[in-house]
Amino acid sequence: MADLETLTTRTALDPMDIVIGGPSDAGVTLTEIPFQTRLVLRGLPSDKKFTAAVKGALGVEPPSKPGTVTSSKTARVLWTAPNEWMVYSDDTGLAATLTKAVAGLHAAVTEVTEHYTLIRLSGRHARDVMIKGCAIDLHPREFGPGQCVQSHLGRITVLFDQTDETPSYHILVRASFAEYLWMYLEDAGLEFGVRIEAAG
Amino acid sequence: MSGQSFRIRDKGRIDRSKPVRFTFDGKSYEGFEGDTLASALIANGVHLIGRSFKYHRPRGILAAGSEEPNALIQLGGGNKSEPNLRATQIEIFDGLEAASQNRWPCLKFDVGAVNSVFHRLFPAGFYYKTFMWPASLWLKYEHVIRHAAGLGKAPPDRDPDRYEKVHAHADVLIVGGGPAGLAAALAAGKTGARVILADETADWGGSLLSESDCEIDGKEPARWVEESVAELEAMPEVTLVKRCTITGYYDHNYLTGLERVSDHLGAAPEHTPRQRLWKIRAKRVVLATGALERPLVFTDNDRPGVMLSSAVRTYVNRYGVLPGRKTVIFTNNDDAYRTALALEDAHGRVAAIVDVRTSVTGPLADAVRAKGITVYENHGIVSVQGTQKVTSVEVMQLDANGTGVTGTAKSVNCDLIAMSGGWNPTVHLFSQSKGKLTWDTEMAAFIPGTASQALASTGACNGTMGLADSLKEGLKLGAEAAREAGHKGRAPAAPKATEPEQGGLRPLWITPGKAKLGRKGKHFVDFQNDVTAADVQLAAREGYRSVEHLKRYTTTGMGTDQGKTSNVNALAILSDVLASDIPAVGTTTFRPPYTPATIGAYTGRNVGKLFEPVRKTRIDEWARANGAKFEHVGQWMRAWYFPKQGETFRQAIDREVKAVRDGCGILDASTLGKIDIQGPDAAEFLNRIYTNAWLKLGVGRCRYGLMLKEDGMVMDDGVTTCIGENHYHMTTTTGGAANVLSWLEEWHQTEWPDLKVFFSSVTEQWSVVAINGPKSRAVLQKLCEDVDFSAEAFPFMAMKEGTVAGIPARLYRISFTGELSFEINVPARYGLALWEALMEAGKEFDITPYGTETMHVLRAEKGFIIVGQETDGTVNPLDLGMDWIVSKKKPDFVGKRSLERESMASPDRKQLVGLLTEDPQTVLPEGGHVVEKLKPEPPMEMLGHVTSSYYSPNCGRSIAMALIKGGHARHGQTLHVPLEDKVVKVTVTEPRFFDLEGERIDG
Predict the structure, then answer these.
(1) Which residues 6+ apart lie within 8 Å of B793 measured at CB?
(2) Domains of chain B (ranges plus CATH)?
(3) Which of B676, B679, B785 shows the shortest C-beta gap to A106?
(4) ipTM value for the complex
(5) Which listed residue, B48, B397, B484, B631, has the most CB atoms within 10 A of its CB?
(6) Which residues of chain B lie closer than 8 angstroms to A10, CB-CB?
């Protein structure tokens, strides 16, 4: 019987045979970050027990302001609806921790690690690439680190947050749309130069 | 000067050190960098540019900007070719190939010009009058008309260029980079506001680049423009976009712009788009779009060599070319006198100024007279000689009210007529924004009235014609717009500007000729659509009194230029016939785009691989490597079947279908919609959404459910499993996944917010492999040590967690085939590993991969419906014979009330039945109509249609399902399915064909 560690795993983008590399002065870099722990957290922000339980598990309360992100050492928590958050983290045990923490409350933790993949778009022209396909105002006066939004990018729906001033965007995309998004971003980035980087 | 014999030695903004070679109708010419095609052709003395739409009259260049109605060009060849471009906007580059349009066999001798001789056959509404009868011939007529009247030609194949789109946001969008626009941008930019300034031309400055007789702060206007642009470029939040036509103004200050990024370069540099579509959302908009000069409506005013006066000035001052060596100016206002002075300054001779005003005084008139130029007051041009280029004109004195002429005609030799009928503020975008126009009597033009969006108009487009006033107003409104968008700052002091003082105009809408209107020569109103003053009058007399009717009947204001030069003239002439004033007649609707935009720009990168997202599962690559054929299911690409070498479609399907029933088949079912449902009220929620009972489903148990819409019709179906306390896993159809989740959220949020339950989509969290057939248990047992597969321990409709091939999995014993079957769910990353392990373990059992087609045959053999195939939104559970799944005990569920209406159980509704063809080898086409009473030909009364039809190798015959009126009572009846080439006789049966007793489910 095979050991889980030795099994073949395939990320959403593996079938594309993406080649790492590209010009060092590229205007944007692209990276797939495939297997972070990703959780949909549901609960009532008005329930103090709930927010406290989440803080206990994640080190931070879920944001109550629409379109904002709170983050701790272990996790980033993105506001997606008045009673819904996207949590992502490198901690593979987080689903169990969080589920345990909110047990008995009116809350739900649903693992969506594989439902999504994450594409990181970064570089001095990252914003220029984003606004080709996204109608949200991403000007630094309007959108910066600590903010997230669900919107269209090209012909699909994504959830993304900005993680630094470079700028860098973490784009969460349904796995089956990842190939489209990757091709879209690569093509949209052509005029600025694109470098592909490995996750890690 | 290498052939550019009309180039002026010391004028123009062209770069004489950079000669550019181009061709027009195959002949090679030279111009300079900075020329438009129009200015370069004028430099070479070329004035015959095209043939008109209807009469094929020779036409030249009328204007110098985007309002050009005549000089339409087919640019480039092959798939890069683009028709109907205005020569006045095309920037020339080395190797540019331009061709005239609407002529055959050549521009100078055009057969179609015979239309002009028979012009009496082509009055207003000609198409409507001539081609109406018989209606059946319209298609033929249309074909001939299109060929004869078509302007340019569409390229034959795929567009090879790149196009971009960009979403832009601004505090203040300023449209137009002339004096008012630049001033507005300076004022807004200084506040720190985010400003976008767009101009449709290649240069900033607008009208300022055409003037040589004004100053700003003691400087040449071009200097002021340079300094202003440098100042704007230094502002980090100001975006300057040249060659960008704002084409549309929509709701909520959303505007679109078409930027011609590299059209002027010939070939675009690698990865550079040809054009870019700007989608701009602005808090405030400042329109500074200028004004368009009006032509005068006089006899044969369309001859090559008749040009707008301001355009002549632009060609002289901005491009350094002389449109004529001897000019007659024809005007109703002072502005044209500036043209006379500019021409004199450029060593072009002005033969005479013909002015319809009875008495002309003022500084401009004085200056002109001081040059010795004759001014004919109260005169009009009554005839134009020269068909391919003006050679002379006749002028006569106007009578007392300007409707006729008196005295004798004086002939004046000339090769250019510069005309000015006053100015129309460019209110197109204001009007598109739903702003109301008002009539300005002094200007005799429409100007912006009440705005209905957050915008301001400034400069000439606001009727503010003076330079000093425009600058002052631009600065004021620019600062105001920035303030309204939340920025602080005052308008900078206005610069001092001087320009020649001007008096008023005399609006004389038709210049009378020697004969009655329409008799000798043509008074053109709309050059592009060949509409004359006589046509407008005729239409009015025939009862087309509404301006909207006039437009459609005469076609005035249509075509690529949308009446930019003709609109007000046509309205004025109509109002005259109607004896009504112009504002009462009103104006037609201005619609986007302001100038035509390429479809490529709107398409952007949504072409080729990016035309539509293609969704694939994690097992897709195995299917691809193993020769699967695919089909689209929504956006998903699913394996359809797996043909072996040399197999036909039918052979492959028969083999796969048999293999599942005889041994073991394996299907990638990952695309099924999956929803994670949690909460103490989850069961109650399911109980309300599904038609059957859900309150007592134990952990580890699965149940099939049917969802109805409020109207009682089937919406979706699927199996939902209780995977833990207050925790359910719902599956939906592949196509219904997103809709079902929205449906659940809608009911929860709007009707039952008190229920404690949450939903999350997990469709792609799991790779799902369905293994079906009597040997499937044996295959799984090889890979799975921690699950008891005995029928007692793991019954039908149960779920167990375990490990398959080392992968943590959920195993659902559910079946869409009627066979012993397991649907194995693993985290998606292991999907491929699971599939490969199953293939390997199944080798000894001849495990057979199958696709969606075999899945369909297998379920049809068992009579399982597919939502969307057996149902179409008008089919209820009773129609499907699925009463068994509709609870009679539950107090309520979505659709219950509708379903209980008497008519929903009516025996003559369309009901699901099986059909067996008389010849077992005949497979009915899906969609085939089923009839009872056969007639030799349609129409026949239709009972219903075939919803599913296959050849079933397990039944050894074809099988079909159909929705048929009163079907449940028709079992045993013989009906007919008439097809194109034959009639198929069918017998109505139960919609179930195989394993009627359900004995195969345990293997």
Answers:
(1) none
(2) 1-156 (3.10.20.440), 163-291+425-491 (3.50.50.60), 295-421+503-517 (3.50.50.60), 523-598 (no CATH), 660-850 (3.30.1360.120), 900-989 (2.40.30.110)
(3) B679
(4) 0.97
(5) B48
(6) 618, 621, 829, 831-833
